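Instructor's aside before we start: the two examples that follow are unrelated to each other. I chose them only because their records fit on one page, so don't look for a connection. First example below.
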Amino acid sequence: MKTIIVSAGVSLILALFGTPLAIRVFTRRGYGQLIREDGPAAHATKRGTPTMGGTVIVIATLIGYFVGHVATNDPMSASGLLVLMLMAGLGLVGFIDDFIKIYKQTSLGLRSGAKLAGQAVVGGLFALLVINSRFADGYDLTPSDAHLSFLRDFGPSIGVVPFVVWIMFLIAGTSNAVNLTDGLDGLATGAATLVLAAYVLIANWQLRNDCTVALTQRCYQVASPLDLAVVAAAALGACFGFLWWNAPPARIFMGDTGSLALGGVLAGLAVTTKTQLLLGILGGLFVIIALSVIIQVGSFKTTGRRVFRMAPLQHHFELIGWAETTIVIRFWLICGLCIALGLGIFYVEWLPG
């Protein structure tokens, strides 16, 4: 528990006081946000706002994690390090995308195929490593195994190749969904903060009901649940500190650097806590927003008509007259409801009777 508190505190302080420094550096170098010409008119005022703030989130998370372990003399785990590797790897893909946008002075960075290829490489490497026996702990538990999972693993093994493909899809889907959500000040950061808080609770509960401590019918066979809680707490602290400056009106944007990295850490936590499908409920807001884009594109290609005035969904509400802060707060409430539902499903099996 001390490691969780120290890691979260260090990452929060670094993000809170490091973000203003990033704002000054990025502003001096001209790393400003480019705005889509076909976007809501109100977004024109955001042109030039420093972007790539996700670098602060990633760096604060990594430093917070390592400082927490050093300060408490708590050993690091393969599970925690692999999730952080996934976060940093996708953050790098996002950084390249952001840098191309700034260098070319366009709202389009990496081509969609190149971005997906980068996500696939990082995601595929992560999927292979989490089931590698070399990373098994003292109880012979690998960070994950070749099963589908909801509250825990279920059904027979699906095999290495299908598992790797599925995890690559999960990682790409989650990171792109967070990326689509990052369209209004503080929206994606606040939503990610809430989901990360849920994973701190989930990993802590798995620790308290670990099969290596008490072998019961409902125990959890999860490798290093405490360290996964530390990872979630470190990312949570970094998001919390960054949100101070990213809340409406934002002084800095996270960019693809941050949104892909946050999607990566959420997907990584889902895989290593063996709650892959539960993530779809906990991150219900991200799912809804991603579906709005799929529906919009599918409808336009098949019928020539648009379901929404603009996709992703948050921009539809902007165009019908909702204030940006109203959308952000209401979407945070929706995110909170999704998390309450997900946690309720997770804990319901422990209720008496």
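Example two begins here.
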Amino acid sequence: MNFKDIPIGIDLGTTNSCIGAFRNGTVEIIPNQICGRTTPSVVSFCGEKILIGDQTQGKIQFLDEPEKIIYSIKRIIGKKSTEDNFNKLIKDLPYKNNIIINENNRPLINIDFNGKEENYFPEEISAMILKRLKEIAEEYLGQPIKKAVITIPAYFTEAQREATKMAGEAVGFEILKIINEPTAAAFAMGLGEKEDLERVDDLDQSFFLLEENKNKYCDNLKENEEKKNISFRFRWRNT
């Protein structure tokens, strides 16, 4: 299998996002252009250009036009204004007064940019962030990236999961899996260390192993008094 056939992994975070790729037997965290291992999940419409992710660092003034700096969009992706906690989710956002509701109770971000008014769904903002992450990965790896796995909170609804998938597909990703963050954490903690694992129908069934592997990992640290990397291999069963 060529590396180009292997997807990248994306932690699409509320505050920051992270990209990883499996190379040379280990997961490599891909740095952005300013060598950051995480990239801000921020889109700025300040000035004459749209700045995204690492492009915003050190270049935007949060006090000038805070309503044009869009962050924490993950809070409302796939949500509707009729949901009980919607107002609570947006109350601390500086752009809350720019959020309008369409006829389907879906929120849009209203932006006045360069004299032109635009409305963006939350998944469109997320797509901008994913596009930037895709550019970072492609530049670092030196080749096009077409496949991705994206992590999401376990509490995400089906609508939020679908909106996240749509954001990824909008920038040209083939989304192989939308995976719960606790499941990803279980894998990272050494699930199946030194063993091949067969694919289960629902990867989230592996969540119950998180604490067991976490305790095992921490005990090893205390016993050996040194850090170590735990890796695992995943054997996919054809179904």
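Residues 112 and 161 are 29 Å apart (CA to CA).
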